[in-house]
Structures are given as structure tokens and as C-alpha cells.
Amino acid sequence: MSINAKLKKLEDNAMAKGEYAVAAAVAHLLQDIACVDKQINLVGAMHEVGYLQNSFSPYWKEFRADESAWIERCLTRLVTADHDYWALASLLGCNGPTTVSIAIGQGFKSAATRLYERFDKPKVHVNTLYLTANGKVLHPVLEIGYDTTEMKNVDVGRARALSLENAQWQPGDCLGEGALSLSMQAKLPHGAWRSVWTAFETWDA
Q1: For 166, which DSSP code?
Q2: pTM here?
Q3: Exposed site from 8, 52, 120, 157, fewest CB < 10 Å?
């Protein structure tokens, strides 16, 4: 089945299920199949309404022939956009260390790393990145969490700012506790969250 046929079938199914954001993203992509931004919008919209990885895989394969270029475009959109959930979710499934490396190449700095456990799955390595610091406030903030076995992104986040409790924080210090403002998080196999304010705690690993 051609990619156009797959997309038309997806559009019809999305309309039937009331997934209008997905249907609209497909319709826009069909007008310009080579547009990376429209490809990102479709993948992000599919994740937001709960599609699982087996549904994403054909589109990941089709759209991510140059995964580095895909990651770079997603990150470029996330630098200035507080609400671009589709660009964030489109980082899922990409190579984690490559994502971190490209972000650093775009000017982000690593503030901390940590590991967390998952039930019956490999640990997740999370790198907390920020673009600029103004005293104890880091902004914007990216969190790239990848599976330590497959090295694929499974947990990604973006916030407008991270305000630390430690008013004396300097780059290189432990982040400790704080609060994220206007944050978004996307996970595999599913999970989409947005929050105006959420508590933050990390540790160096």
C-alpha cells in the first residue's frame, strides 16, 4: 500500500472515530507529502489521541529516513514554542543520545542526569537540558528520557522554565528541587500531559 493510500485510510478511520485533529493533520499532509512540519504534526497528533507504537511505525519509517534532520526540526520548533506538543511527541522513538547531542549542538546545556526504574522494562536515562539561565531560573527546559537498552526516547518533556529552590544555583551545581511552569510530557507506549505548574526533583547520576 502506498503512503498516500495509508494516509487516506488513516484519515477516514480518524474521522469515523471522531479524531478530528488526526484527520486534519492527514488532510494537510496530503496537500504536501514532503513537508516535514506536516509530517511531525501528524505523528504528534496520533500520539496525543493514544495511538500505539505499531500504528506509528510505518510513518516513522516513511518520514524518518534522515532521523537527525527530523530531530533537529522538532527541537527547533520546541525552542520558542510553549505549546507545541506535536513536536515534542514526535521525538518519541528517536535515538536518545542523538537527540541530546543535537540539542547541545543547538545551544542547550545539560543540567543533570538521572535514571528511573520501570516495571518489567529497562531503566530510563533522563537528561535535563536548558538553553539559558537567569539566576535560579532555567529556560526553556527539555527532558530527554531514553530506554537504556534500545536507546530510544520513551519519555520526553518540555517546559517554559524551571525555577529552582536553590537561589544560589550555578551551572554545574546539583539542581535539587524546584517547579516547572507550562510543562508538557509525552511517553511511550502512551501518555500525554500538560501542566501550568508541576513539582520538579532530580539528582545527578
Answers
A1: -
A2: 0.94
A3: 120
